[in-house]
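Input/output pair, single chain:
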Amino acid sequence: MLARWVGGASAERLDAVMSGPLRRLLLWQIFRTMGRRFDPDQAPGIDAVVEFRIRPSRPGSVDRFQVVMAEGRCTTTRGGGRSPTVTLDMGPVSFLRLVGGADGALRLILRGKLRVWGDPVLAMRLPGLLNIPGRPANSRRSR
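Output:
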């Protein structure tokens, strides 16, 4: 459902939602779902902490969430206190496009919309680990 909404929404619409009162609820739901979508078969023996830093559209505080994958399980927390294996820093529209499958991490990095610190290989594996949908092959939308 998120993938469909993100894929059909303009950057302006996504930014408006992420700048308003629905931001907190949307982020909470995305990260809650992320833990459920984790595929342990894609991650044998993985022990990693992925930190997402989602910057605001306007000056303000950054939302930080940690996704912890260990022992075949995945948990998510707001903030988090563990040292990240990889950190992904991006704006709100890029975040929605990434988790909605409308844009991949490499594309966002090359466009300067995503900064990655730590393990870049883990960052590239995240779509498979978290069952993030891929960008539709017939997508003609310019980004």
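Residues 2-129 form a domain with the Nonspecific Lipid-transfer Protein; Chain A fold (CATH 3.30.1050.10). The chain has a mean pLDDT of 86.
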